[in-house]
Write a structure and sequence with these properties.
With 457 residues, the protein is of the alpha+beta class. It contains 17 helices and 20 strands. Strands 12-11-15-16-18-17 form a 6-stranded mixed β-sheet, covered by helices on one side. 37% of the residues are buried.
Length: 457
């Protein structure tokens, strides 16, 4: 790596793939593991968190010691590439870590993954999922020995065969439902897989009582005005959940000059459908928690058990070209065949695009409570709001930026407003004091600002 690229990395600051270290210590070892388990990255040893180039004593022996240190403390062994580089008369070490093909990598018996600009200890569930993903396995292929072929509704299988043929996604040389189930890997030696029961079961709720969606409409934050459990197969759940949502959100009609009226919903139905499909398709079916849909006056939250699939981060979701890594491969394939999934990996970009076109904030995607949530919010950022809260033009611009991007950092506030760090800190603190934004993190790397639960954007 040359000096120009290193200076660029320092200027951009710590991130998902960049870390600064005064010395090569235990934190640096953990970062090697986190980078290996995520997308790889660079550790600049001799550069402090505030981007000051302090330098470090380097020699051939010290570089060999760092390489041995990593190799001896990682399982499976990782051998990073370490290059010495002199900048402004000071020596630093550039440690290049590639994403490992075998995951997860443990550092002294613990596994870490990269989350924004920091390392996070992986849970046993995440470790199991990452390993399963690495060897091409998924939970929905598990055999249910307490079930039999008779527990599968073959008429539903026949409907799937017809639909996949009509839409042109899949064609079978034999339309016998048992043959198709075996060919797709949904049944093995006449024993149903978990996927076969949740997709085509006669009574899924009897065999897997946690495979349901709990939908609720709340008034004033806590009063329940509508409540429903959606059961049935996963394919059936999609339309029923969406029907509940559309019944409980607002819609108005506009005359656009075209024939008929244009429906304008609080949240775009296409985005809601994608979010529901994602929750049902990618939930953790080894968890006994249920999917929840909570509709409030100012927001709508969809939560499913199970965080992001191994190898994906929240930041990856904003990249329209992020790879598709379905947690449940068999279920995802069937959803694709019947066009519940338009294209692998396209769900989140479609949600973001639909919300932008509708003029509402980009949804907040979060890993929380052992699962994954999508929060849709209404657009309440108006000129009246800015006046009532006595916000200056820079603060208004920052809130609009947050509406579009979901969060903002101090550095981004400085950049979009052309102000100093001190002024950015002061004005962000004013927004926090007024309860308009919350800070995530304390100081340094990874610190950013988001709208609070009672969203105003």
């Amino acid at each position: 790596m040359d000096e120009a690229m290193v200076r660029k990395l320092i200027q951009l600051g710590e991130s998902l793939t960049t870390e600064f270290k005064d010395s090569f210590d235990q934190d640096a070892r953990e970062t090697v593991g986190a980078f290996s388990n995520t997308h790889g990255g660079y550790i600049l040893v001799g550069v402090s968190n505030d981007r000051t180039i302090k330098g470090v004593q380097l020699g051939r022996e010290s570089i060999v010691r760092m390489i041995d240190d990593v190799a001896n403390n990682t399982q499976p062994r990782i051998v990073p590439m370490i290059e010495p580089l002199s900048i402004d008369g000071r020596d630093i070490a550039v440690v290049t870590v590639r994403e490992s093909g075998i995951k997860p990598i443990a550092v002294r018996g613990k596994c870490f993954k990269r989350d924004d600009a920091s390392n996070r200890l992986m849970s046993p569930q995440e470790i199991a999922e990452m390993y399963s993903s690495c060897i091409g396995m998924s939970a929905d292929v598990s055999l249910l020995h307490n079930c039999a072929i008779d527990d599968i509704d073959l008429e539903k299988v026949k409907k799937y065969i017809r639909t996949s043929l009509i839409v042109g996604r899949k064609k079978f040389d034999n339309d016998d439902p048992i043959y198709v189930l075996e060919k797709l890997g949904l049944v093995k030696d006449r024993i149903p897989t978990l996927a076969s029961i949740v997709l085509f079961g006669k009574s899924t709720i009897d065999k897997l009582p946690y495979v349901k969606v709990h939908c609720g409409r709340f008034k004033d934050g806590s009063t329940i005005v509508d409540d429903k459990y959606v059961v049935g197969t996963t394919i059936e759940q999609v339309d029923e959940v969406l029907s509940f949502i559309l019944k409980n959100i607002g819609v108005k009609y506009e005359i656009s000059g075209k024939p008929g009226r244009t429906e304008v919903w609080d949240y775009p139905p296409i985005a809601l459908r994608e979010a529901v499909v994602n929750a049902i398709c990618h939930r953790d079916y080894t968890s006994t928690s249920e999917i929840t849909v909570k509709i409030y006056d100012d927001k709508l939250v969809i939560w499913n058990p199970g965080g992001l699939p191994a190898g994906l981060t929240i930041n990856d979701l904003y990249d329209p070209h992020h790879p598709s890594r379905p947690r449940n491969r068999l279920i995802a394939d069937i959803f694709y065949d019947v066009m519940l999934v338009e294209k692998y990996g396209s769900g989140i970009p479609r949600i973001i695009d639909a919300c932008k076109k509708s003029g509402i904030p980009v949804p907040a995607f979060e890993e929380k409570y052992g699962g994954f949530s999508v929060t849709f919010r209404k657009n309440l950022l108006t000129e009246e709001f800015f006046i009532v809260h006595k916000l200056n033009e820079r603060q208004a611009k920052a809130l609009i930026y947050m509406k579009e991007h979901g969060k903002i950092t101090n550095l981004e506030y400085q950049s979009i407003n052309g102000v100093s760090k001190n002024l950015a800190t002061t004005e962000l603190k004013e927004l926090m004091t007024k309860g308009i934004i919350n800070r995530i993190g304390t100081t340094g790397k990874g610190t950013h600002y988001v709208f609070p639960d009672k969203e105003i954007s």
